[in-house]
Design goal:
Elements lengths: L4 E2 L1 E6 L3 H10 L1 E15 L12 E8 L2 E11 L5 E11 L2 H10 L2 E16 L2 E8 L3 E8 L8 H15 L4 E4 L2 H7 L7 E2 L1
Antiparallel strand pairs: 1-6, 2-9, 2-10, 3-4, 3-7, 4-5, 5-6, 7-8, 8-9, 10-11
Length: 192
């Protein structure tokens, strides 16, 4: 897969036990991390004024390692996103980068604090996230090597994967954790 394209879903599941049992038996555990993500918006192009939000600029501290990430989401004709352009790199000094962003008139808009456990299974990276203030989620990202995939087809296959494990009711959101924290009244979960 192109290094700058991300295909993923984010869902709530009614019962995580079957998924955890499946992952423990069939997947490869990668890591557990405490991630603190801080999202910024520039004054000259306020990301959070647009609906649906198309862009995020994020600083992340994950177990003491820092990175910066920019995402540009692509939406279908009914306003759902199945993939985004993603650019990410390590950061040596997060406090200095934060100062640079402030000087350039970027404002911090929200922080997301989560514990993430990650497994790999086939072409998927599967994360179980416990997000402070929001609850528990499953995020599945396509990590396959095929550059000719159809993002909608891949995300449909991810939903089928979760359904086949029988985790009960599955609800999906298309807006991500920062939006849910900033605008909980606007979040529309979609049963799958």
């Amino acid at each position: 897969m192109n290094n700058n394209i991300e295909i993923e879903i984010q869902v709530n599941i009614e019962n995580s036990k079957p998924l955890l049992e499946f992952l423990e038996k069939n997947a490869i555990f990668q890591k557990e991390s405490h991630q603190i993500d801080e999202y910024f918006s520039p004054a000259h192009r306020n990301f959070i004024e647009v609906r649906p939000i198309e862009e995020w600029l994020r600083l992340r501290n994950s177990n003491g390692k820092d990175s910066i990430n920019y995402k540009k989401w692509h939406f279908d004709e009914i306003g759902k996103s199945h993939f985004c352009d993603e650019y990410e790199t390590k950061v040596e000094d997060l406090s200095q980068l934060r100062k640079i962003l402030e000087i350039l008139d970027f404002k911090s808009v929200v922080k997301v604090d989560k514990i993430r456990k990650v497994w790999t299974y086939g072409d998927y990276e599967i994360a179980m996230d416990s997000v402070r203030g929001l609850g528990d989620f499953v995020e599945i990202e396509y990590i396959g090597k095929d550059n000719q995939v159809n993002p909608k087809k891949i995300t449909d296959e991810m939903i089928k994967f979760i359904k086949d494990i029988d985790c009960g009711k599955i609800t999906r959101n298309y807006v991500g954790y920062p939006f849910q924290l900033l605008f909980p009244e606007e979040v529309k979960l979609e049963e799958q």
